[in-house]
Write a structure and sequence with these properties.
Layout: H1 8-22, H2 27-34, H3 38-51, H4 71-82, H5 90-101, H6 107-116, E1 144-154, E2 157-166, E3 172-178, H7 183-196, E4 202-205, H8 221-228, E5 232-235, H9 243-262, H10 268-287, H11 306-309, E6 312-317, E7 323-326, E8 329-333, E9 343-348, E10 354-358, E11 361-362, E12 365-368
Parallel strand pairs: 1-4, 4-5
Antiparallel strand pairs: 1-2, 2-3, 6-9, 7-8, 8-12, 9-10, 10-11
Helix pairs in contact: 1-3, 2-3
Length: about 375
């Protein structure tokens, strides 16, 4: 038989489907962890039951779709919808494409392109839905719900409490007070969870700009880090979708605020010390529950250095002479190879330090003056 190469996502889907077949994972939980609908989940599990690991592969793997929209046409249509025809509904836009631009594009193709690039125009608000409580997942480490809350937690000033809780047990895995809800602060909480417990199968986030938008292809630093760690990023469509962590914050705004005031804690340093050394342990002991399946689902980190994965990455192109520019300064790459046109990764770490690499290979750089004379580096 011909060798079969499976991606990490396909391998994860295969193992989760085996748990459904064995009866240790509910089908609806399989759908949440894989991002598939109920009907897709039924078909995929049946396919794996019948065909084993071959069923985890898409039937068209390796084939180019016959109805694929040419890239040049997609770029032209998207550009027109963003500029000349900005604000037009798709029916009107299609009529003018044919009349003024000479482009005959199917309505379904326009709908797909508009949705892909976040250019849909909604004429009315959707009706409110009743949100039913979702049962807990069966294993600790399958899903972590993450959120932040701006509140007057201590000292009469507003600060942000960021935390992650396990969906199966309700256990607070990591929490810390910050001055704002930023990408760096979110990465700090994620790293604390991974270092203490391992990598969860999935994280549940809201649709804040730091973490990505469900209706757009946002290449956020947190999304990139999760892709590297083979951890699924699920973006909630509403606050009710993250009901457990939302209810937790209501509890903390009562209990934690009262305890900090009782102990006359008014600084962020003191609040974090009390939160992490005392409050979390006692809270988990009192309020967390046992998971239905005692086996933990955390994955070991086999993906590389967390300092490189959980950081802010920016890219710059190398110019002639192995020089690149960043934040108004020029840098010289200390390397004998000609790296012209290569992309340099500028990694800003959680402690504020920076490192540089090209395709994962670490490089040494020297900051230059505007006339390219070397500066002493300390």
């Amino acid at each position: 038989m011909k060798d079969v190469i499976m991606s990490q996502n396909q391998l994860k889907l295969y193992h989760l489907a085996l748990k459904v077949i064995e009866g240790t994972l509910l089908l609806k939980d399989f759908a949440v962890l894989t991002g598939l609908s109920k009907r897709q989940s039924i078909r995929r599990v049946k396919r794996i039951r019948d065909m084993d690991y071959i069923g985890a592969l898409h039937g068209n793997t390796g084939n180019t779709p016959a109805n694929r929209t040419p890239r040049e046409l997609e770029e032209k249509v998207v550009h027109l919808l963003r500029t000349k025809y900005q604000g037009f509904n798709l029916t009107h836009f299609r009529e003018l494409l044919l009349l003024d631009e000479g482009l005959d594009v199917k309505k379904t193709t326009l709908q797909m392109l508009a949705k892909k690039h976040g250019l849909e125009k909604h004429s009315r608000r959707p009706r409110k839905r009743v949100h039913k409580p979702r049962p807990r997942l069966p294993q600790e480490g399958m899903l972590v719900q993450y959120d932040g809350s701006a509140h007057r937690w201590f000292g009469g000033v507003t600060s942000h409490l960021l935390l992650g809780i396990d969906d199966a047990t309700g256990k607070i895995l990591a929490a810390e007070f910050f001055e704002g809800e930023t990408t760096f602060n979110g990465l700090k909480i994620i790293r604390d969870i991974i270092e203490e417990y391992g990598i969860p199968l999935a994280f549940y986030f809201d649709q804040a700009a730091a973490y990505g938008r469900k209706d757009r292809d946002w290449n956020t630093n947190i999304g990139r880090a999760f892709q590297t760690l083979n951890c699924k990023l699920i973006l909630a469509g509403s606050p009710q979708a993250k009901g457990r962590v939302e209810r937790l914050f209501r509890t903390l705004q009562d209990r934690l605020v009262s305890e900090l005031a009782l102990r006359k804690i008014k600084t962020m340093e003191g609040a974090n010390e009390y939160l992490q050394k005392h409050f979390i342990h006692l809270f988990n002991k009192q309020f967390s529950v046992e998971a239905a399946n005692p086996t933990k689902a955390y994955m070991a980190n086999v993906f590389g250095d967390l300092d490189i994965i959980l950081c802010k990455k920016e890219q710059r192109k190398v110019l002639s002479g192995n020089i690149f520019s960043f934040e108004g300064h020029h840098y010289q790459i200390e390397d004998k190879l000609n790296l012209h046109h290569r992309l340099v990764n500028i990694n800003t770490h959680l402690d504020g330090s920076r490192s540089f690499d090209i395709m994962g290979r670490s490089i040494t750089v020297t900051k230059l003056e505007r006339n390219y004379r070397y500066l002493k580096t300390g």
